Amino acid sequence: MDSQKQRRRKTLRSKLGTSFAMVAILLSAILSLAFYWFFRQALRDDFRERLVTAVGIAVLQIDGELHSKIIAPGSENSDAYLQIKKALQKIRAAAGPEIRFVYTMRLLPDGSIIYVADAEPEDSKDFSKVGDLVSNIGPHFREFWRKGGGAPYSEKDFLTDEFGTWITGNAMIHRADGTPDAVLAMDISAERVLARERNFLWLVLGLFVCTIPLALFLGWLKGRNLAAPITILTEEVEHFDEEHLEKPPAGEGGDDETGDLARAFNRMTSRIKDLLERLQMEIIERSRAQESLREAEEKFMDILYASDHAILLLKDGRFVDANDSAARIFGHTSRLALTPADPAFLSPPRQPDGSASNEKFVHMCAIAKEKGAHRFEWQYQRLQGQLFTADISLTSMILQGEECLCCVVRDISDAKRLEEARRSHETLLESLVKERTVELLGTNDELRAEIGRRMEIEKELEGQRAFLRLVLDSCPDLIFIKNSEGRFTLVNRAMGELYDLPPEKIIGHLDSEFIGIPDELAAVRRADLETLNSLLPVSVEERVTLPGTGEIRWYQSVKIPFSTSGGERQVLGVAMDITSRKANEALLHEAKEIAESAARAKAEFLANMTHEIRTPLNAVLGMAGILAGSRLSHEQRGHVRMIRSSASTLLETINEILDFSHMERVNLELENSPFSISDCVEEVFDMVATRAAEKNLDLVHELPPQSQAVLLGDHVRVRQLLLNLVGNAVKFTERGEVSVSVKCENCDGEDWLSVSVSDTGIGIPEGKLDCLFKSFSQVDSSISRKYGGTGLGLAICARLVELMNGRIWVKSKEGEGSVFSFNIPLRKPEPPPALSPDEELLREELSGRSAVIVCKSAAFADSLARTCADWGVSILHKGNSDGIFDGGLPLPDLLLVDAELFPLLVLRSEFEDIPKLLLCRLGEGAPKHLKHSGRFAVLEKPVRRFRLARTLLSLLNDERFQEQAQALAADLAAEEGSVPLRFLVAEDNLVNQKVTLAMLQKMGYVAELARNGLEVLACLRQKDYDFILMDLQMPEMDGFETARLLSEWVSLEQRPCIIALTAYDLGEESKKCIDAGMDACLSKPLKVEDLEPLIAKILNGRTKERPIEKPPLLELKTLRRHEDVYEGFSGELGAIFKTDIANGLALLPGLFDEGRLQEARDLIHGLKGASSSFGATALAALCATAQKKASEKDLLSLRELLPLMISCHEQTCKALAALRFIPV
């Protein structure tokens, strides 16, 4: 027996050890595989991320425009290809040995993908030529190309082609205009990745093999430890018997597994003992329950035998017991005769319904057992043979532990006979009634028909009454009928809800019982009497104050008179609740009052504003008229014409602004005369040309042929529309171009003018588009501060387009630009106007000529080409200079060249004898080296069509060319002179700028322009000026703020004389200007006779009404000297000045607290020197005072001076930043 137990223990230990060892080995294998899989994914992701980063950096080094020139196969030796290939080779060398291939690809329109440039040497077998097809490409390439690029990416899977298997990273190469040109690709060999993965796999396998012995040892040790307590438990169980229940529990041992098993075994013993005790108690209780049940059964049998009702016990389909009453009802003398007996023995063979008695009784018993009880009628047969009907009640019960049925039998034969007799009498009575009815109906058929008709009519009337009541109660309006006394005879449910009463409690009552306000009751009765007397419907508004709540409601009541069948006059009323409408009417009335008040205020404001503006405009028009009457060159006369046209248009617009507030009531009168839409666009371009030239913007247009450009309409209104839209486009565009597209279309037999004005400006957020065409509205309040304007321009445009029965709309994308478009119906004149003799001559002379247009802007070149083509000039080339030196083009008759590209062509011998037209920006003038350029002419942008035609014709005519050359030579000679005084004109209005600059130049002075206070500060940073003519109202920084800052920052000796220009009352503004630091004040319009004496007075002796009591913040000459000596002053020295002074001032409080005044004095001395060197005179003065106090050991004064020094340093840094001497 002991040897068998020993073998059992060994088997258990070996099984447990083996199981745990296998689990440990399996777990180690799973962890090793997971670790390898995660490392492989991380390794591949790392390669892809590094590849994406490398290709993202590398694509920045590729010139998209240069790459786009590589197009045709065989371009491997072109300059563009060699430069791109050199760049690719540098990229591969910088990327390291992991990058195998670097190349570019392009998707062709037919869907094929070709190689473009390859970094491989041409003699390499892996080299791909331009146009070679790419055999395999990743699944995301075409989608990447379709989207126009985006972030660089790498294909997730390896790609295999004729060169091998690779990981590929791609990045989009864009041209200068943002369109995709090609894709830069970089390849890493997949073999490098797989080699790294194999090395790591061998490492993981080695680690796994090393863990196997450790797993075996741990399994054996764990199996041995687990087998020991189980063996002990087995021995305890084998010795366990019933006697152990009475013995004390086994010792619980220690805290190891054996102790846990012993404690579990003892708990099991205790539970078994408890279960045995509960079992004994249940046995005792069950014995007691059986005894009670036996006694209850005995009592039940006693009651059964003593009952007067016939009761039988049925068991297993037979009667097993019965009482004496049951024996009597069946005709037996003793109950023993009924037991045991089959129920069929007491019943006839069949029941009255024909079913067999024995089968049916079995079915009834089954129902009683299923439901617990069942009651039914049954026919029995007595011993003597009589049949009787009984009421049977079967109840299922348990008796002496067995299921049985208690059957209670009641004889109901007498009751059945009485019921049968009653039923016979009822049948007889019904037959007699039917017979009598038939006799009555048969005797009077007409009476029966009449009764039927009356019943149908009554039924129909009842339905109509129900429908009418449903309609009345469903209506939300009040419906009522009142008699002449005001008593309600009918009301609907809505009437009851109004007074919170059922309708039936309102009927029969007077209206005075519900209307408690005398005035309201009088108004109601007055309307009722008017209806009854006039016999006509009456509509009236009635106010009702609800009783209880006091709520006031308004109703629109319609009262209709009618007469009843008895001739009584009554009123039918229908009242609709208009409380909300009355409230809205009150709000609308209040809003109308507010709007009218605002309109009056706006009208007064517009009148005052336009009055102030008309004065300087009239002066501009007068001066322009004087200039037009003087001897002017062709170019000068064009400038004067532009001034007069701009001023006239602005004056006309201002006159219309006066009527803007009345446009809702009075329509403007529109003229209907022939005009050229092309001339209209060119006039607008002339008006905005100066501002566009200052921003280096190109003004381009797409106009219809001159034969289609003449329309019937209001030339002034159309030009006003264009001026507002083009002016806005120029105002909000900092770079790029402003384009106007004009089309004359015919839609459904009606002529329409379609105009679109597009720009490349700041754009408009989509959520702000709805407020563009509202009066005094701009997209953002900061727009007014930065760009100026009142916000009326687009509102006027919208109103004018509406008056012309047109439509205006806008499309915009923030940061990319806007397109404003409008359509207006304008008819063409009949018959079409004939060409003027001048135009016919120009067309005849220029027709058949050829020209080459060389411009940087493709849009401007297209616009110029369309204008030339309209005059009959054929264009051989348009665009930049690419391709015109190849010799493939025939020599043109004319060469139109952009001023920026003119040096590239002037020295070309093949173009030496060709007449050249130089296109320069407005105000730039002609370059001085033109005298060596052969036959030439100069035109300023924007180019007008007639001016272009005349200039081209003059180039082709020697006499006209000589006159223009002499005029240009005179202009170039005049530019070599100099003037003694320098003026800076601070003015944001374009016309005022022109007038002021022209006046100063006519007086012999040099003048420059600044549009706001910030530009004034920027100009002062660059050079000295003698005078500043300062407008007081400017965007971003006005004249008052600019003068105040200059008086604080710059010393009187270095500050220019500031002369204020104002359109307000000179007496009120003069004191404000002097207080702000200005020297004098002049009223607009500026006149030579006012300006010259004031300049002479200031030059003879500059005086100030308020002397400067403290040193200025800055010394401008010192700052400019540093700027000249130290290149990059703003980026380095300025930052050093700002931080070093701040750090030094921050150290002073600690030195003061520790009493180290000598060190503080030395530090302040250094701060004073640094401030003086940088021209910070005010800070240097404060430092000198503080140095003196430190020498005197006056600590209290030093603590008072320190906040002043810190504040002065902050103000100095602010001033330096505003003047752009240090970074902001």
Give the low-confidence spans. Answer: 959-979, 1103-1109, 1125-1131
Question: Which structural class should the secondary elements be placed in?
Answer: alpha/beta
Q: What can be said about the biggest beta sheet? A: 6 strands, antiparallel
Secondary structure: helix percent: 40-55%
Explain the overall architecture:
- The chain is 51% helix and 18% strand.
- With 1224 residues, it is α/β, with parallel strands linked by helices.
- The chain folds into seven domains: 33-201, Beta-Lactamase (2-Layer Sandwich); 307-423, PAS domain (Beta-Lactamase, 2-Layer Sandwich); 476-584, Beta-Lactamase (2-Layer Sandwich), CATH 3.30.450.20; 671-826, 2-Layer Sandwich (Heat Shock Protein 90), CATH 3.30.565; 851-907 and 914-973, 3-Layer(aba) Sandwich (Rossmann fold); 982-1102, 3-Layer(aba) Sandwich (Rossmann fold), CATH 3.40.50; 1116-1219, Four Helix Bundle (Hemerythrin (Met), subunit A), CATH 1.20.120.
- The strands form seven sheets. Strands 1, 2, 3, 4, 5 and 6 form a six-stranded antiparallel β-sheet that branches.
- The model is unreliable at 959-979, 1103-1109 and 1125-1131 (pLDDT under 50).
What would a concise description of this structure say?
51% of the residues lie in helices and 18% in strands. By secondary structure, the chain is an alpha/beta fold. The protein folds into 7 domains: 33-201, PAS domain (Beta-Lactamase), CATH 3.30.450.20; 307-423, Beta-Lactamase (2-Layer Sandwich); 476-584, PAS domain (Beta-Lactamase, 2-Layer Sandwich), CATH 3.30.450.20; 671-826, Heat Shock Protein 90, CATH 3.30.565.10; 851-907 and 914-973, Rossmann fold; 982-1102, Rossmann fold (3-Layer(aba) Sandwich); 1116-1219, Four Helix Bundle (Hemerythrin (Met), subunit A) (Up-down Bundle), CATH 1.20.120.
